[in-house]
Amino acid sequence: MHTGSLPTVGVDALTSEDFLLDVREDDEWAAGHAEGALHLPMSDFVARYGELTEAAPADGKVYVICRSGGRSAQVAQYLIQQGIDAVNVVGGMQAWEAAGRPVTDGKGGTGAVV
Q: Taking the complete model, does pTM exceed 0.85, yes or no?
């Protein structure tokens, strides 16, 4: 699926093997996130970019997610400009939660998308 020139994917197409980058802010992450996602808030993204390049699969896609899809689209576009195979997750964590995907608070509890 493409939105303009930006590749997009729905949460239903993601597997546990996919590399997920969550760009929501710290309070949103703490409330609830997808297990195994890398958290780099959009507000710190450029400063912490090296953390992504170290963690991301060398020849794989980076699936970028936020709350609803707006911030992740901006970050995905930036990553594509850097030569990274990035895909925006349409609907973000709201769609993730609505699809019944697990949301964790990182402390062993069930999280919530805020």
A: yes
Q: How far apart are CA 60 and CA 74, in angstroms?
A: 19
Residues of the chain falling short of pLDDT 70: 1-4
DSSP 11-46: GGG--TTSEEEE-S-HHHHHH-B-TT-EE--GGGTT
Element (H, E) at 88: strand 86-90
C-alpha–C-alpha distance, residues 49 and 59, integer Å: 17
Cβ-proximal residues to 103 (8 Å cutoff; 6+ apart), any chain:
32, 33, 34, 93, 96, 97, 110, 111, 112, 113
User: Which sign, positive or negative, has the C-alpha torsion 27, 91, 72, 65?
Assistant: positive
**Active-site residues: which are they?**
66
